[in-house]
Amino acid sequence: MPLSTSARADLVLVLVTLLAAAGWIFSKEALQGLPPLLFIGIRFVLAGLVLLLISRAKWHWLKRADLLPRALLLGVVMAMAILTWIQGLDKGQHLGEGAFITSLGVVLVPVTAWLIYGERASGNTLLALPVAVAGLALLSLNGGFNTDPGQFYFLAAALLFSLHFTLMAHLASEMPAVILAAVQLLMVGMINGLVSVFIEPWPEVVEAGIWGWLLASALIATSLRFTLQTYGQGLAPASHAALIMILEPVWTALLAALWFAEQMSAQQLLGCGLIFGAMLISRWRWVRGLVMKRAS
């Protein structure tokens, strides 16, 4: 019996969240042999080139003088977000914790949209924010003020990702998703690679295994992930897709526990739970609609 469109969308998007979570593991392993910014530069240039090659039929969009500068600006914002995220990944001690902090960007998107475009934040968002802040406090104040330095980078990344998501919403409908992603990925790779040239020492020799993790990050966790995400989002409403994408930090925490034997204290687990709850609260209208649809 063939799967329904809705079921296919669910399966594809759940797979996307798993690939995104796996990307945290791939990246952490690659950082054992590559400087953070050099790694990001190579990873995103490779991923961007792959997407550009598979979207040759849409290259004429790159000639749109009204859209390309905005796409490049999005790439700059994304590059800043990724730059801070990779620093958090390099300096942080807990991948799962970092994933939940970074996911605060989802909660902050409506606030950013209000600050930039004057869009009113919903009551659910206003309710979710203090819950998210409480969760972040439990993570950050575990054992007092001896904060993991990676948390500050992850929080900065969350703020920048919320800005990127907000700006993206006003351009994504005007430009093919694959071309828009390719431009942004290439910008991320080139900017981080350029910064790396000036501030990072490059290793003389890189083990073959590190190159394997790099390729997995570029081809599986970036190019393949985005291709599947584009396909899945085409099958499901945006609200439905966004709800499923909330699973990413959950998978990341589970994979980190399995791969790196990471452990969290009860306080840290509660903090992650509150942040996850804040994401659900901020999207409560979608959660309720999805539940009612499944029940009918």
Outline the structure in words.
The chain is mainly α and 296 residues long. The chain contains 13 helices and no strands. The chain has one domain. It has helices at 5-30, 36-54, 68-91, 95-102, 104-117, 123-140, 149-169, 177-199, 208-235, 238-245, 248-260, 266-282, 284-295. The chain is globular and about 55 Å long. The chain starts with a helix and ends with a helix. It is a multi-pass membrane protein.
Number of helices: 13
Q: Major sheet: size, sense and barrel closure?
A: none
Averaged pLDDT: 83
What's the order of the H and E elements?
HHHHHHHHHHHHH
Cα gyration radius (Å): 19 Å
Overall shape: it is globular
- How many strands? 0
N/C terminus separation: 21 Å
- When the domains are counted, the total is 1
Helix content: over 70%
Q: Report the β-strand fraction as a percent range.
A: under 5%
Q: What class would the helix/strand composition place it in? A: mainly alpha
The residue ranges in which pLDDT falls below 50 over 5 or more consecutive positions are none
Main location: membrane
Organism: Motiliproteus coralliicola
Keywords: Cell membrane, Membrane, Transmembrane, Transmembrane helix
Domain EamA: 9-140, 150-281
